[in-house]
User: Fold this.
Amino acid sequence: MVKKLLLMLCFLLFAVVTTASDFKVSDIQIEGNSRVETSSILSAIGINAGDQVTLGDVDEALHNIFNLGRFEDVSAELTEIQGAKIITFIVKELPLVRQIEFQGNKELKRDKLRPLVTFRIPSLYDREKVKSSVEEIKKAYIEDGYHAARLKTNLKTDINNEATLVFDINEGDKVLIRKIAFVGNTVFDKGDLIDVIETRERWFLSWITGRGAYLKDTMDIDIERIKAAYHDAGYQDVKVKPAEVTLVDDKYLDIMIEIDEGPQYHVGKVNVSGDLMYSEEQLLQGVKLKPGDVFSREELRNSIVALTDLYADNGYVNANVAPLTNKDRKNLLIDLNLEIEQGTQVYVERIKIHGNTKTRDKVIRREIPIVEGDLYSARRVKDANRRVRNLGYFDEVNVTNTPGSAEDQTVLDVAVTERPTGTFSIGVGYSSVDKLIAQGSLSQDNFLGYGWKLRLSGSLGSTSTTYSLGLTDPYFLDTDWTLGFEVYKSEREYDDYDDYRTGGAIKAGHPVTRNSKVYLTYRYEQKEILNIDPFVTSAIILDAEGESTLSSITAEWVRNSTDYYQDPSRGGISRVSLEYAGLGGTDNFIKSMASHRHFFPLFWGTVFSVHGELGYVTATTDDDVPLGEKFYLGGIRTLRGFKTREVGPTDPDDPTEYIGGEKMGYFNFEYLFPIAEDLGVKGVLFYDTGNAWTDDEEYFSDMRNAVGAGIRWLSPLGPLRFEWGYNLSPRDGEKDSVFEFTIGKAF
Assistant:
């Protein structure tokens, strides 16, 4: 007689009818497996035929089989045949997933969702991996602003136990932050705290900018930013609780941040101790915090950096400044002791340069204002980083120091990553200044790896034709002298006449200070004014008709203290020049120019810049100043909102004919903000003011004004400028606004 009992019933029966707690297994059988080998299951069971087993042994065997991760269900049956006990383990295999599908996803496409599924196909269904995948997909939707997204999984299994895993997604609407509220804040109002954090409330352009999205990691950092703001205002005991985020009607998020400000602390005593390189009074001059000041952690950090840099500039590269504070809660004072451990004075043993596959070592080395054997200087190392970066030859520059062969020696490590420095382009375009243009150019800022600058360009337009060739060596014969030349030819059509020029120039320069150079340039030109419009009546223009020659020498001083020449955010560029024409030739004049542009970094990567330029030209003989050497303002490079060369003096008898001025002055105020940093796209808002005047008029009389906006893109084809200017006081014949753009001109 064959008896088949369920395992639990069987074991209960055995517990009742026998005092023995175990039994002998005659045989072990496996049923239900098709893909998993029987031997693999048997090896996991840990029970063999002939063993004495207990209930616990069978239970452990079931767990071992299930832990293989290959089965959806596992059970056991006990069969007794003629007194022999046989245990049969019945398994139900997990389906083999051969396909993964997504349903209901519109905002996030399959290409973005598929990598978030953490198991490969084909593979057996894995609950934990599916659960992990669901969490990753939900996280992706939350990061994209879909906090109300719902997700479930379906498994479609066929008769062969093969399945398609379906992620069924209900995305819902994009959920943005409706309101950020602060509780307990009295020191800072909501606007002050909003300015501190990165998280923002939604606004009417959120559908474009994405503003108002909630990211937990960003919010966690924002909590620390709020704490830092209070610490800098003296509230050292401030407590900021984690943000409470509430989903409202699956449409909006409301965020509440609770703040316990605590009392405000001031600075008590301030001391400097330890290894004093100078007297305590001298060192305290570099400490930003003074007794009685509000205790600010930012000022404390600045003080530590100032002292550390002071020691590092004198070779103590490993100097350590430890701030020791004593908090007086009763009087709300914090005493500060800055303990200095100067360490060993260090010298530069060796300068190691690597990563430069094209650029010669000497091109980099000459930009490093420190040589082997010098006392280490943190200031000069920072300057080396800036100067090598400003060469424009490298994507990355990293100047660090590593230990040398002795305790008082260090190795200066200069690691660079080369970037392409040559460009070749041929194309057809359109400029609002030069109209239709066919242009080609070849430039190499690091010619042959020696740092030579080569320029070869040509353009053919409906109103202009130009050709030029130039080569400059910034360190001629490995000296500090700069030497270069340029030859050029241009033919330009203006409204009233054509201007043809052919010439060349030789330039030499030498540094004066760390950031400034002087240049001396000799220029020779053959010029011709021709094809004067038959309706022109101006005697000044008519008298200029014909050929002339220019032979001049120009002295120029240039100072550049910007942080990064290619895209400055701080510092300034100054130029002062004086040109004398009369070294032979027919043109005789003196022209002086002065300009300065300064950059001020603001918040969120924005920059404010101010540019001003003044000029004056006068004849040195009884002849007039040549027509082409006078000042004409207007256009994208001087005063936007006005047509090119249409700001300045006009002929008294015909106000439509611009004759140029002997004086000029203009100012540009710009606010630049990033639009797409990775692509090099920026926006600009500007205000321009200026004019050009005759010799008998006063500077800054009758200033012309314009405002506007534009986009600048450092594209692969060269810098692009698209700018629209609005004339604030248009006169007869002038447009209210002018849109202009240029390609391949320096910003």
